[in-house]
Design goal:
This protein has helices spanning 11-16, 27-34, 48-59, 67-71. By secondary structure, the chain is an all-alpha fold. The chain has one domain. It starts with 10 loop residues before the first helix and ends in a 6-residue tail after the last helix.
Length: 77
């Protein structure tokens, strides 16, 4: 049974320790096309920090060697 990541907002940790979470990687392409300024207005505990963490690992050149490990189970078409 997968663990629930209550209060964890580190995307890499969630992937490595196989926590249960909602995959938001399909939204990366939409975010790239959305415009210059983005504002995320959601209540507490709705995954805003986790989304930003996911984007950090997606775009950070320091994690380019681990990209497939972190994002292979997702489809970014």
């Amino acid at each position: 049974m997968q663990k629930i990541p209550y209060g964890i907002s580190d995307y890499k940790l969630l992937k490595e320790e196989k926590y249960y979470f909602i995959d938001k990687t399909p939204f990366i392409k939409e975010l790239e096309n959305a415009g210059r300024f983005l504002m995320f207005l959601r209540p507490r505990r709705f995954g805003k920090s986790l989304l930003i963490s996911m984007l950090h690992y997606y775009y950070d050149i320091h994690y380019k060697d681990r990209f497939d490990e972190l994002f292979t189970s997702f489809h970014l078409s």
